[in-house]
């Protein structure tokens, strides 16, 4: 049993398996086989399956719970199977992870979890695989979850490995988070951060200025920081008129603050030109467009990938006169449109380590070498954006990652290379927007803002405002 990544996608055929478990397995397999995003694929699968609300909730918990705790479950499976997980066929390992989540972390009858897993194994694997799945999962049922925890936690050789196993984050991510928190004098918060990453966040929404108000978004309350945000008390936001019409959107508060830090850094002068350099899929562009429209400015959005550019156009279609959407290489725009824009947002492509609550699979998908490759792209984008910035203009460099190699290191490298660029006091500017003090630790002394899930309840957004001298 060694086929870790099948050459051809294997769909789960129709059989007598509970639909919620089938949907969860299909999503988990797609995440592994084709790098699908669970948060994008799962809603599509749920709609096609026409699941009742209770079954949809079960499928959601099965999917995200399994993906979040994959590292810990793999350690349990290796002990129970007495073989490394890389010697188990990939589809069967997916089935085992799904079953282990039910046995160790959910109130599911053991016989139901095992029987359904065996049925799924019969569909995606060989005849012998069903006996293997049955044996491994029944071995897991013979010990309490606390006993499995004790056995797993007897393996780590140091604290980073302990935290990695217990909270199901790769060791390299644990170390990166430790370094980022230590830079703020907050290394003791590391475990709180890892715990927060494994809980689903509350649904936050943005009421686009000029198009919607917080008060008209039913079933919500005002958010903690963003003045245009609301937090859902439950229910499907797509059913609310403002959301259905595109006047309000589901958007993390951290993302809102990233856009508002640029649009509200100072009063808008009519006629200003703004640029969203890496606009896909369009959430921040929509908020910037609303802000620009209110202040008499014009937004131009750019996205290098045609498919993502189309998503941006769709996101901006709610406006009567939608902003122009370019399909250009952002690293070249500075040379093509030098000194053309008063405000520029660079929401740079990154590892996404700041959004592991929403995209738990990213922790298993990314590798340390990805950071170096992305840092090179981030540097090129920032240099290009600064060329496109008018004298006296403001640029917001943003990543949804707290990894220092993607944040402070990139900014400092560019500041050493490009003349006439200085940092603005981002913490002070955001403090005026939020009307409350952001707890930022010692990092605030460097002029940037690093938000955190465990401390602020947002994605771990990095925000740094820069300006070009007149």
In CATH, the homologous superfamily of the largest domain goes by the name Vaccinia Virus protein VP39
Give the percentage of residues in beta strands: 5-15%
Question: What percentage of residues falls in helices of 4 or more residues?
Answer: 40-55%
- CATH topology type of the largest domain: Rossmann fold
What is the 3D shape? globular
| Number of DSSP E strands | 12
Please give the domain count: 2
> Mean pLDDT, nearest integer?
94
End-to-end separation: 65 Å
Topology:
Elements: H1 19-34, H2 38-49, H3 53-68, H4 70-81, H5 90-105, H6 110-124, H7 127-141, H8 145-152, H9 159-167, H10 171-182, H11 190-197, E1 204-207, E2 220-222, E3 229-232, H12 241-244, E4 248-250, H13 253-263, E5 273-276, H14 283-295, E6 298-302, H15 306-316, E7 324-326, H16 330-336, E8 341-347, H17 362-365, H18 368-388, E9 389-399, H19 408-417, E10 421-423, H20 426-434, E11 449-450, H21 453-456, E12 462-468
Parallel strand pairs: 5-6, 5-8, 6-7, 8-9
Antiparallel strand pairs: 1-3, 1-4, 2-3, 9-12, 10-12, 11-12
Helix pairs in contact: 1-2, 1-3, 1-5, 3-5, 4-5, 4-7, 4-8, 5-6, 5-7, 6-7, 9-10, 13-14, 16-18, 18-19
Q: Could you characterize what this model shows?
A:
The structure is a single chain. This protein has 470 residues and is an alpha/beta fold. The protein has 2 domains: 131 residues, N-utilizing Substance Protein B Homolog, Chain A, CATH 1.10.940; 217 residues, 3-Layer(aba) Sandwich (Rossmann fold), CATH 3.40.50.150. Helix content is 50%, strand content 12%. The chain contains 21 helices and 12 strands. Strands 5, 6, 7, 8, 9, 10, 11 and 12 form an 8-stranded mixed beta sheet that branches. Strands 2-3-1-4 form a 4-stranded antiparallel beta sheet. The radius of gyration is 23 Å and the shape is globular. The N terminus is likely disordered.
């Amino acid at each position: 049993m060694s086929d870790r990544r099948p050459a051809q996608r294997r769909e789960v055929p129709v059989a007598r398996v509970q639909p919620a478990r089938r949907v969860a397995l299909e999503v988990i397999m797609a995440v592994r086989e084709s790098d699908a995003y669970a948060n994008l694929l799962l809603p599509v699968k749920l709609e096609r399956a026409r699941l009742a609300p209770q079954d949809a909730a079960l499928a959601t918990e099965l999917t995200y719970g399994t993906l979040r705790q994959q590292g810990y479950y793999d350690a349990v499976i290796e002990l129970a199977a007495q073989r490394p997980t890389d010697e188990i066929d990939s589809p069967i390992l997916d089935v085992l992870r799904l079953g282990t989540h039910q046995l160790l972390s959910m109130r599911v009858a053991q016989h139901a979890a095992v029987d359904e897993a065996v049925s799924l194994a019969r569909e995606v694997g060989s005849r012998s695989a069903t006996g293997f799945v049955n044996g491994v999962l029944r071995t897991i049922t013979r010990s309490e979850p606390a006993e499995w925890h004790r056995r797993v936690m007897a393996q780590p050789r140091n604290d980073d490995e302990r935290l990695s196993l217990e909270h199901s984050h790769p060791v390299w991510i644990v170390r990166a988070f430790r370094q980022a928190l230590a830079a703020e004098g907050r290394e003791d918060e590391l475990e709180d951060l890892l715990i927060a990453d494994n809980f689903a966040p509350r649904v936050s929404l943005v009421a686009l200025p000029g198009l919607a108000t917080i008060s008209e978004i039913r079933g919500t309350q005002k958010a903690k920081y963003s003045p245009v945000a609301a937090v859902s008390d439950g229910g499907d936001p797509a059913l609310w008129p403002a959301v259905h019409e595109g006047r309000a959107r589901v958007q993390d508060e951290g993302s809102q603050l990233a856009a508002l830090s640029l649009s509200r850094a100072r009063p808008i002068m009519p006629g200003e030109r703004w640029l969203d350099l890496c606009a896909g899929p369009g959430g921040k562009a929509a908020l910037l467009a609303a802000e620009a429209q209110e202040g008499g400015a014009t937004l131009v959005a750019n996205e290098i990938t045609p498919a993502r550019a189309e998503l941006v156009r769709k996101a901006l279609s709610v406006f009567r006169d939608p902003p122009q959407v370019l399909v250009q290489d952002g690293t070249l725009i500075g040379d093509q449109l030098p000194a053309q824009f008063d405000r520029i947002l660079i929401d740079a492509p990154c590892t996404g380590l700041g959004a592991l609550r929403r995209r738990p699979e990213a922790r298993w998908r990314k590798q340390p070498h990805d950071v170096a490759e992305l840092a090179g792209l981030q540097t090129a984008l920032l240099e290009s954006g600064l060329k496109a910035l008018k004298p006296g203009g403001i640029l917001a460099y943003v990543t949804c990652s707290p990894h220092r190699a993607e944040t402070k290191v990139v900014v400092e490298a560019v500041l050493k290379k490009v003349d006439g660029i200085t940092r603005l006091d981002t913490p002070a500017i955001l403090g005026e927007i939020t009307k409350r003090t952001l707890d930022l630790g010692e990092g605030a002394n460097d002029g940037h803002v690093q938000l955190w899930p465990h401390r602020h309840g947002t994605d771990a957004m990095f925000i740094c405002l820069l300006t070009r001298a007149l």
